[in-house]
Amino acid sequence: MPFRAPLEDFRFLFDHVVGFADIAATERFAEASPETVDAILSELGKLTEEIWAPLNRSGDLDPATLENGVVRTSKGFADGFRALAEGGWLGLSAGEEHGGMGLPLTLTSAMNDMLSASCLSLGLNPLLTQGQVEALEHHASDALKAIYLPKLISGEWTGTMNLTEPAAGSDVGALRSKAEPNGDGTYAISGQKIYISWGDHDFGGNVCHLVLARLPDGAPGTKGISLFMVPKYLPNEDGSLGDANSLRVVSLEHKMGLHGSPTAVMEYDGATGWLVGEEHKGMAAMFTMMNNARLGVGIQGIGAAEGAYQKALAFSLERKQGRTPLEGKGGTGTIVDHADVRRMLASMRADIFTARAIALSCAVALDMSTATGAPEWAARAAFLTPIAKAFGTETGMRVSEEGVQVHGGMGFIEETGAAQYYRDVRVTAIYEGTNGIQAMDLVARKMMDKGEAAMALIDEIEGFAETLRAEAPELAEPLWQSVETLREATEWMLAQGDLNERFAGSVPYLMGFARVLGGYFHLKAAQAEGGQGPRARLAEFYIRRLLPEHVGLLAHATVGTADLYALSVEDLSA
Amino acid sequence: MPFRAPLEDFRFLFDHVVGFADIAATERFAEASPETVDAILSELGKLTEEIWAPLNRSGDLDPATLENGVVRTSKGFADGFRALAEGGWLGLSAGEEHGGMGLPLTLTSAMNDMLSASCLSLGLNPLLTQGQVEALEHHASDALKAIYLPKLISGEWTGTMNLTEPAAGSDVGALRSKAEPNGDGTYAISGQKIYISWGDHDFGGNVCHLVLARLPDGAPGTKGISLFMVPKYLPNEDGSLGDANSLRVVSLEHKMGLHGSPTAVMEYDGATGWLVGEEHKGMAAMFTMMNNARLGVGIQGIGAAEGAYQKALAFSLERKQGRTPLEGKGGTGTIVDHADVRRMLASMRADIFTARAIALSCAVALDMSTATGAPEWAARAAFLTPIAKAFGTETGMRVSEEGVQVHGGMGFIEETGAAQYYRDVRVTAIYEGTNGIQAMDLVARKMMDKGEAAMALIDEIEGFAETLRAEAPELAEPLWQSVETLREATEWMLAQGDLNERFAGSVPYLMGFARVLGGYFHLKAAQAEGGQGPRARLAEFYIRRLLPEHVGLLAHATVGTADLYALSVEDLSA
């Protein structure tokens, strides 16, 4: 069975769970009518089903290679990218003044989900370009905007992010790349950057690198970092490609997965760069790009989960093994009727729903923030971003792992394709800030408001559970109980003045929060179906079987550091 | 840091947790004195550290290949195998009458752990040979024993298991391979078998295939299956290699991991075979081999986890990123001092301990059963086997996944080596009966005694928790609570006359049981240290942070089938 874009899921979530109508009701996004949304989703569905999905295996089997300093991409990738660009889809949410469609990020999120599900490695390219567009829109000078934005939005050029260096990964502030003023308004950028996704390709056009580097008078740490646009080719006044810049791809990494996405070591040797935003304020500018990218990476996890799920489901509908419990009772006769296989598939589907609802809620909050300027929406988006990233990618790992399991022995054979999802998605829990970094962000920066954003969400869930307690007690009561436990865990977090006490349980806290959010969104879906429908049945499954995981997670979340540091390095090494 | 055999862990578990002294106190295993055990563990530690560990990457980078019908194995593998054979280690637990050492399986389990940790793909070979030896010891005629056992025990020859066919995986009874009597006491075996690990190699000697096939008068299903010894070369009377048998390796699979282990498609074309055990009783004979192999595969998961853990720990002691909370307080300055990294490492270590204690307890029960013939020990071993297999391999997956995470971006780069554990170990949750099959075995066959074995274990844990309630309430009380919840879940299982009701939650039940067992074994370790020591500190970590997972798991375990089958195939496909 080939990939099928989950259009119904998006429509249902938009209409009944995440409140897309609120976005469409704003002046800013008045064009996002149901008809427009439908038409766009359908077009993107077609593109991903027909053009992108067939590329997925090609990317794995025919990895990007470096040949004489130039990256040769996987067979068909250039055409796939071109088809996306020609549809104008790269600029779906970009500003109209430079050629974008100005439509909600929520719609772009659904697009990224389908791109990731159909071909994760190629889908990373537009994700980076989208992030670069947003960073330039917010921080670049008008002159830079005029040169770069139209080309990035049209897909003529593509963008990358250059943060990491060998000694500066999670600790970005340790970077050593240097920027020296050239005296003509440009800068000479020197240094080595690693893990640069799509650092080069053969799609034509320019590769536009946003590079973090330190000016001579930059302070140590993150406060002394500035952001520069460093293009592969120096653009002429008319926008055409001029001389090659002093930068090169040193090598490509040999990775466990995502082979179709070239991961470059980049060398900048006095390359010409232009400042983006203010001097020494590079991290703030980069954060614009990273927040967008973090949500995008969470969605990569969900997309990969969708692809893995569809493959496993299709297999379970073909594979016959043993007598099933539904034999003679209208069953399929295939393994999908075995209780444990159906349990695995239902778990996968229930968590894809959860992760997607969280990610799309985050996108809706971003759009509402853009449209209304209300700080509550910005706070909601900021709070949900690390959850969307970490839970989305965790779901990618869990679902692709179960996808392999459903296939049995065939899951371990590469030709089946199940293993590719498992290998590809693994990096999403690492890049754009590891899931551990996301969780630290959640319990520290995202609670600097004294927990206001967290508690607003908790109150909302509790209020919803309250209203359903009489109507649907068997589902509303467990949700109510879970949100109370979450409230207590959140209060515990807020009471810890020493942030490290929070960090000792931040990952399970984030996962526990996601579990409770899942209960909320599943129950909303059930209610929208009047308690009778496929999503209501999935909600029952989720609430009875997966929601209870919050107990263990939130217990783990609130232990503090004492037991951790009691375990010495010697204890761990003994 | 190179691999270091975890000898201290084995010694501690033997002495203080799993009761190795009880084995040594039996007449049957009187030779297993502390000195002998120590000497053997040390020798095996040296072998795995010095000879096997350096082969691990070679197996991955230089996979086994099929060249003109013959398997060429990874560079160095033949020497590694030879070193193991020359030590006599293949026969560590084999009977002395054919050259074995007759020592406890518990000791072999520790060996398999180290072999798996140092080189999982090569370690699979002796595991299969051990299983074949055991099957022959129990079921083969004296004539067959005399020919095969000395050669298998010395490592001159190796063994394989041939169960799976394209349409017969978990459903072994669906197999189509045929056996026709030749009239001279031998049989002509025909059919295709897949996923035959170590189906051929270039170590020299014979490859001895135990093949399941159906005689002309064999009933359909598992009841009509017989077991045959089908060697690659027909042995001469004097034990030397005679003519090639009519069998061949058709192809090798291209797998996600375990590249050093050749996984063959085997074709038998009227190959000469000898009956092992009685006609139509092949499954019973195969089960002897499979039970041994299931425990062995669980231990593969633990070994892979050990290797992944050691690699991650070493990295965390070298890698510097950011200011750590222990700066100026005697910290290392490396990422091991970050709370979330230490939490990950402690989780990994705590679950390796849990899984190892379960597996070694299972081995001890097997040895006690052999030594005493007491049915309680056999029942204990039978009950623990699926838990040891599924939880051991689940631990392999979880720990290798976290091992990648600790490495950050480097974890996704193949050269680092962390990814190999993640890829290699994945199959262990599938082969020798998927973990889903293990869980069904646990709640069905292993509860056919009306739950006697389960309840005996539960009573033992509860009794232990009782005795410690006054002395160490903060750890004993949570264990007591958890075992009560487990008792309720077990009673729920036993009350379900329709086994499918049990199957709907069998995997989370098994995992929940393992969590409670972990509490028991950790607390035993803590008590042995008088509450003051590295294992007592690890026990506190486990009981406060990981034991609470039993709540969600056991809630999930006891929901039954109603919600599963309410979710129709259409619901799952919508």
TrEMBL record, chains A, B:
Q: Which reaction does it catalyse?
A: 3-(methylsulfanyl)propanoyl-CoA + oxidized [electron-transfer flavoprotein] + H(+) = 3-(methylsulfanyl)acryloyl-CoA + reduced [electron-transfer flavoprotein]
Q: Does the keyword DNA-binding apply?
A: no
Q: Where is the Acyl-CoA oxidase/dehydrogenase middle domain?
A: 161-269
Per UniProt, the keywords (alphabetical) are: FAD, Flavoprotein, Oxidoreductase
SUPFAM superfamilies named in the record: Acyl-CoA dehydrogenase C-terminal domain-like, Acyl-CoA dehydrogenase NM domain-like
**What InterPro entries does the database record attribute to this sequence?**
Acyl-CoA_dh-like_C_dom, Acyl-CoA_Oxase/DH_mid-dom, Acyl-CoA_Oxase/DH_mid-dom_sf, AcylCo_DH-like_C, AcylCo_DH/oxidase_C, AcylCoA_DH/ox_N, AcylCoA_DH/ox_N_sf, AcylCoA_DH/oxidase_NM_dom_sf
Domain Acyl-CoA dehydrogenase/oxidase N-terminal positions: 79-156
First-level EC class: oxidoreductase
Cofactor(s) essential for the protein: FAD
Domain (Acetyl-CoA dehydrogenase-like C-terminal) ranges: 457-567
> What role does this protein play?
Involved in the assimilation of dimethylsulphoniopropionate (DMSP), an important compound in the fixation of carbon in marine phytoplankton, by mediating the conversion of 3-(methylthio)propanoyl-CoA (MMPA-CoA) to 3-(methylthio)acryloyl-CoA (MTA-CoA).
Family, per the entry? Belongs to the acyl-CoA dehydrogenase family.
Q: What is this protein called in UniProt?
A: 3-methylmercaptopropionyl-CoA dehydrogenase
Organism the protein comes from: Pseudooceanicola antarcticus
Q: Source taxonomy lineage?
A: Bacteria, Pseudomonadati, Pseudomonadota, Alphaproteobacteria, Rhodobacterales
